[in-house]
Design a protein that fits this description.
With 429 residues, the chain is an alpha/beta fold. It folds into 2 domains: 240 residues, 3-Layer(aba) Sandwich (UDP-N-acetylmuramoyl-L-alanine:D-glutamate ligase), CATH 3.40.1190.10; 130 residues, Protein-Tyrosine Phosphatase, Chain A (Alpha-Beta Complex). It has 15 helices and 17 strands. An 8-stranded mixed β-sheet has the order 4-3-2-5-1-6-7-8, sandwiched between helices. α11 runs parallel beside α12.
């Protein structure tokens, strides 16, 4: 099929909604000859930081000469961003050709009496087929949602990673930290080592118990050997870090949490080295990390005024964002473009971020789950009376750009669905 047909098929499949479980994914892969077998995967779950950590590990492996597949979601600007090899998106024509094969498997699975595979299951299977055909050295695979029943959980990794766990998707994953941690820990496989972000006690206990049950060796990342020195402005802002008080590391991803995410990535490489799977030096790590990119996460798109986008989409993300804006940027006034999905903790997020702003521009994210701009405005004015609602992203941005002086900061945040569209608009204007 042509690319347009493939994307139409993916969109139409999305109309079937979500139907969690691994049976269909296993069956699809079986009909495709189990392409996931014999590939080396690093599997990454977590509430926050899994995308950044995925990107860091990918960059380090690439910088050491490996051919690395990366699977992430959601995409920021282009659908093909979700499936990459050595930072190159899957070519549109390749995606279309592989979709022909995947669709045949989908049809067989339906004939077998299964429910229609979901959009994410189909994309996951296509990704695994692509990585097998391209004979990658490593695949760094980010969980879509949760862990236990996420379709990526059909893989058997060489190592699993769990980043920061907090409250998100409580309607699906549970109402307590223990329940959510249990879902994330569902990726832990028997005898496979686990690397984790330093967790809150409730989450840590669950992970430790799961590791014990699965005979999985547990490694907890420790950022004590990474010290923040300053913000360095070269081609863009970097965090200057000291490793073991002697080695400089320039980290392009801003935020205190990114320092801990880097420690998780470095611990991952350490475990791989110790198991003779890789042989990567600290010199390789420092050179590679300087090139790491992760779109839409405290990303600076312009100076004078600063224009920053961040896909913070839950209360922990918003709290972290507000803290990092104060730490990493000097500015006179903040102009905030905010769009939030209705199934998030809307009021709590508003309460944290909107009082910081001189003016707030409420927008409607491009999602069926979006909180409408006018409804969002009604919530915002409880905490910041200087707020206007906009249905058009571009109008909101151009108004903010007109309102701001060169020493101010314009921040667009609240939803990853919004950030990608805003990124395109900002880069064009």
């Amino acid at each position: 099929m042509r690319y347009e047909e493939a994307m139409k098929y993916i969109t139409e499949v999305g109309n079937f909604g979500s139907n969690y479980g691994l049976e269909r994914t296993h069956k699809l892969l079986e009909y495709l000859g189990n392409p996931e077998k014999e590939l080396k995967f690093i599997h990454i779950a977590g509430t926050n930081g899994k995308g950044s950590t995925t990107s860091m590990i990918t960059e380090i492996l690439m910088g050491s000469g490996y051919k690395v597949g990366m699977y992430t979601s959601p995409f920021i600007e282009e659908f093909e961003e979700r499936i990459q090899i050595n930072r190159n998106n899957i070519p549109k024509e390749t995606l279309a050709a592989l979709m022909d094969e995947v669709k045949l498997s989908v049809d067989k699975v339906i004939e077998d009496g299964y429910n229609h595979p979901t959009e994410f299951e189909i994309i996951t299977v296509l990704m695994l087929l692509y990585f097998k055909r391209e004979n990658i050295d490593f695949g760094v695979i980010e969980v879509g949602l949760g862990g236990t029943l996420d379709s990526t959980n059909v893989i058997t990794p060489i190592l699993q990673v769990i980043t920061s766990i907090s409250f998100d998707h409580t309607n699906l994953l549970g109402n307590t930290l223990e329940e959510i941690a249990g879902e994330k820990a569902g990726i832990i496989k028997k005898g496979i080592p686990t690397v984790i972000y330093p967790q809150q006690e409730e989450a840590l206990k669950v992970i430790k118990n799961k590791c014990f049950e699965m005979d999985s060796e547990l490694y907890i990342a420790n950022s004590d050997n990474l010290k923040f020195e300053s913000v360095v402005n070269e081609d863009k802002p970097y965090q200057l870090l000291k490793y073991n008080d002697e080695i400089d590391i320039l980290l392009p991803l801003l935020g205190e949490h990114q320092i801990i995410n880097l420690s998780v990535a470095m611990k991952t490489i350490e475990v791989l080295n110790n198991r003779n799977i890789t042989d990567i030096s600290i010199d390789n790590i420092t050179k590679s990390i300087k090139s790491v990119i992760w779109k839409g996460r405290l990303e600076v798109l312009s100076n004078n005024p600063y224009v920053v986008i961040d896909g913070a989409h839950n209360i922990q993300g918003i709290q972290t964002l507000s803290k990092n804006i104060k730490k990493y940027f000097e500015y006179d006034n903040l102009y905030l473009i905010l769009g939030i999905l209705a199934d998030k903790d809307v009021e709590e997020m508003i309460k944290v971020i909107t009082p910081m702003a001189k003016k707030v521009y409420a927008v409607t994210p491009n999602s069926i789950r979006a909180e409408l701009a006018e409804d969002l405005k009604k919530e915002i004015i409880k905490y910041n009376e200087n707020c206007q609602a906009y249905d058009d992203y571009k109008e909101a941005y151009l108004t903010a750009l007109n309102d701001a002086d060169e020493n101010d900061l314009i921040l667009a945040s609240g939803s990853l669905y919004m950030v990608g569209d805003m990124r395109k608009i900002i880069n064009k204007n």
